[in-house]
Amino acid sequence: MSLRDYMGQAVVATVVREASFGYFLQVEADEEDILLHFKETDQKFEIGDEVRVFVYTDSQGRVCSSTFIPKISVGTYDWVKVTDIKSGVGCFFDIGLKKDMLLGEDDLPVHEEIWPEVGDMLYSTLKVNRNNLLYVKVATDPVIESISVKATRTDYNKNIHGFIYRTAKVGSWIYTAEGFKGFIHETERGKEPRLGEKVEGRIIDVKEDGTINVSLLPRKEEAMDKDAEVILAYLHVRKGAMPYGDKSMPEDIQERFGLSKGSFKRALGKLMKEKKVYQEEGWTYLTKKEE
């Protein structure tokens, strides 16, 4: 076997000699040596000792190893965290080595604004390129499918949270804390989430195959509460009176509050029902108890 066959994997190797900066190992006799630098181990070895190491290449392209076995390897997956972002290069991940691993820009969304940020998480593995360099590879749909569990109709309308593992203009794909595989249509998200971003939402459909459709938008009653807070805040700024009511023009409402007229009327109706505001001649006023 060649060293490429070991790249990105944990192997058991034998210490064949020691230098001033580290040990040299071999997996099989007469094979090329693998460097285990002193900084890549917290153990001491003697010639002939067997040691389990992870094989990779350093920044100079040399075959190296570490006794610190990472969370992921070629062919094995786990959740790894983003540690750094470099525009035009890609994202770096902590996989458990002293050296962070790169997810190159070619494997990231075209638009950098939806690249992962530091702290985001992706279910990933490692891949080896033609130069024996290791890179992070994000899990594909079939891989996510293999670790997912099926939702049931009793899960409908439940609140969920999870990580975005794939994103596109038409929507985003999520893997939830329960292990559900889901889809968020573009109309069910306020803005396009980042790849690897943790988001919260609710289940709006359970499909026959056990996957789910998710909405990141607030429920109507939650949205109404927020919209009502916007209106109350504006009324307080205006000393308790504003020239807007349920007869106001939609474009005026949108410009002032950032709300559709329907949302504005629902929130205004809620405030009136709670006797927090009242209307007169096209104006809306705070009631005395709210001033």
UniProtKB/TrEMBL annotation:
**Gene3D superfamilies, A to Z:** Nucleic acid-binding proteins (2.40.50.140), Winged helix-like DNA-binding domain superfamily/Winged helix DNA-binding domain (1.10.10.10)
Q: Where is the S1 motif domain?
A: 157-217
**One GO MF term, please?**
nucleic acid binding
**Pfam families recorded:** CvfB_1st (PF21191), CvfB_2nd (PF21543), S1_2 (PF13509), WHD_CvfB (PF17783)
Q: Which family does it belong to?
A: Belongs to the CvfB family.
Name this polypeptide is given: S1 motif domain-containing protein
From which organism does this entry originate? Niallia nealsonii
